């Protein structure tokens, strides 16, 4: 008789539980999960036996229990805890809003100066290259202080030569004469003379540059203190190629010719983003060792100029254009 009574009571309890509101059932489940989580986390609170969790058994226990506890509490949050988190977010938002407004007003003049600096593309690129080369000096060849200047000078000379050769290849009008209008046969003598002088000046400058480069590298005069390593030349050369305009345009033309399916015919949008991301990442990678060397000022300057401003320039230009597509 007593067994039947207990069975009926249990049956009524199950029926009552089934008739409960789904929200109440979810709350009971969440409370149960919370209590079980506390029980499973008790070994971490035991001061005398906490050292057991450091070994292999403790590591296995942590790998098994912690993900389960986190996922269970994320899936079944307690309503009180959820309300507390929501209230905490609201308080943080109310507190952060005036702080963000104040900081934005203070940062506004700096932002204006940064945008003006980013619009000077050639100066911005040259400063980025120089800062990165100095980083490579201090990390890869710490005993050579002028390697960055020599390398940047040689790379600029090579870029000028490549640019001039490209101009000659792509040139369509080889006539030295400048006409009054596009469809006129009347020649403008003053402009024609100016054009001839400029073209000969470019040609002579190119020839002198190539000759002096060959003499410098052939005779090795003035290069006693310039001894870069192969790794240094590879890293700095790659950085210069993906930042200098003439090489970027050549690489873009080559990538467009390849017609890579992954780029979805958006090479002109993806390539600048990839190149700028690479330059920011490699600059940060070479700025981190300066922190361990105690050169905090140099590290901060490099991160600001080559990482933060590079990301800002990418966000305002190439990344914005890509997101518009």
Report what the structure shows:
Keywords: Membrane, Transmembrane, Transmembrane helix. The chain crosses the membrane at residues 123-141, 147-165, 196-217, 237-257, 269-288. With 325 residues, this protein is mainly α. The protein has 2 domains: 15-77; 120-324, no CATH class. 79% of the residues lie in helices and 0% in strands. Helix 5 (121-140) packs antiparallel against helix 8, helix 5 crosses helix 10 (267-292) and helix 10 runs antiparallel to helix 11. The protein is elongated. The N and C termini lie far apart (77 Å). The mean pLDDT is 77.
In a nutshell, what does this entry contain?
The protein is mostly helical and 325 residues long. It has helices at 2-18, 22-45, 56-75, 79-119, 121-140, 147-170, 189-219, 230-241, 245-258, 267-292, 296-316, 318-324.
* Number of separate structural domains: 2
Arithmetic mean pLDDT: 77
In whole angstroms, the N-to-C terminal distance is: 77 Å
Overall, the morphology is elongated
Which terms summarize this structure?
single chain; 325 residues; mainly alpha; 2 domains; 79% helix; elongated
How do the strands and helices of this protein lay out in sequence?
Layout: H1 2-18, H2 22-45, H3 56-75, H4 79-119, H5 121-140, H6 147-170, H7 189-219, H8 230-241, H9 245-258, H10 267-292, H11 296-316, H12 318-324
Keywords: Membrane, Transmembrane, Transmembrane helix
